[in-house]
Amino acid sequence: MKMMNNASGDDLTLNRLFSYLQEELVTPIESIHPIRKNVYLLQKGNQFVVLKGFSHLRKLQIQKAFTSSLRQEGFKNSYIFQNLEKESPLYLDGTYYGCLEHIPLSSSSPFSYESEKERKDGLRLLEEFHQTTGKLSRRYQTVLKEYNLMLKWRERAARFINNLSIIKFFVQQEILNEVMEWADFSLKGLELEYSFLNNHDQVILHGDLAHHNFIRGIDSELYIIDFDLVSIGSPACDYLQYCNRILPSLDWSLQDLTEYEQIRPFLNNRGFLYALLFPTDIFREWNRLIKDRQYSSTFQVRQVLDLTVRQFFNRQSFVEQVKLLLEN
């Protein structure tokens, strides 16, 4: 038995999981390596497979079905699940496990929004993903939740407000006041223009377009992974998140944002413009930091302060430019 450990799990956990897998998998494994929480790389001879844990069997079953549907519709730039267990689903210590196809990674740098080429490649792949999931949305309407942008953002803003007693020790009040004003302006505008989300056919949204959910394969192809947050909704919701992810790399330049062909048409829509102003990233990261009690970590705090403070003046200029468009 060979185990490679890191912060994702201790030796006891790995020992128990390794022993369990040896009993339940058709082909014995040679090594297990933690990637992150509840995700492991397994080696079988010269082959590898990814083991991923799920809190509920239904979540595992949905993702198995969805990734299979994607592949059947011709979308090849992701993984599918593999049936390697002997009989019943893998289950240990309250977690269900599924075996994913392993995508060998390129030896070059990981996918990054800092690269213009990769920003454009990511958008093209997201567009292809939506074209495919648009064919699947009716099939999954009774399986997946409908994405509710307003509800999600109102809840995120409320948690941020509840956390202000801690955040104010790190960020000056003037900046916090303006960030809250952006959120208020955005939500009030969205109340008036929310119908813009009905202007497009429904698709299955990815819902988590963090850079680590795009990977470059050894074949130089770009792949999209991790479907924990898939839901039904307008493709505009994924594009809004993509904009929010790439704008820091564009120094919050509205002009640079117009250079992306998949995004450009949305910039003529008032609802989309109002939504662009919502500081969802600032709220998300502060809420997560405080929930995980990481505010004593200099490294973690510095990253969130970068979003909130270092980028503030560029973002302030961006907000002013978008407001001018909304006035016209």
TrEMBL record:
Q: Which Pfam families match?
A: APH
Matches recorded under InterPro entries = Aminoglycoside_PTrfase, CotS-like, Kinase-like_dom_sf
- Chain ranges of the Aminoglycoside phosphotransferase domain: 39-248
What is this protein called in UniProt? Phosphotransferase
